[in-house]
Specification:
Elements (H helix, E strand, L loop, with lengths): L12 H20 L1
Length: 33
């Protein structure tokens, strides 16, 4: 069994930034309502 990390399993930094940004916008919408 290899302990090499699977590139496909690791999320891209861009995906993480986009996800966190979308989460922040969702939280803002909750506060506005």
């Amino acid at each position: 069994m290899t302990t090499e990390p699977d590139p496909k399993a690791l999320p891209l930094p861009a995906d993480i930034a986009k996800l966190s940004f979308e989460d922040a916008m969702t939280e803002l919408e909750k506060l506005v309502r």
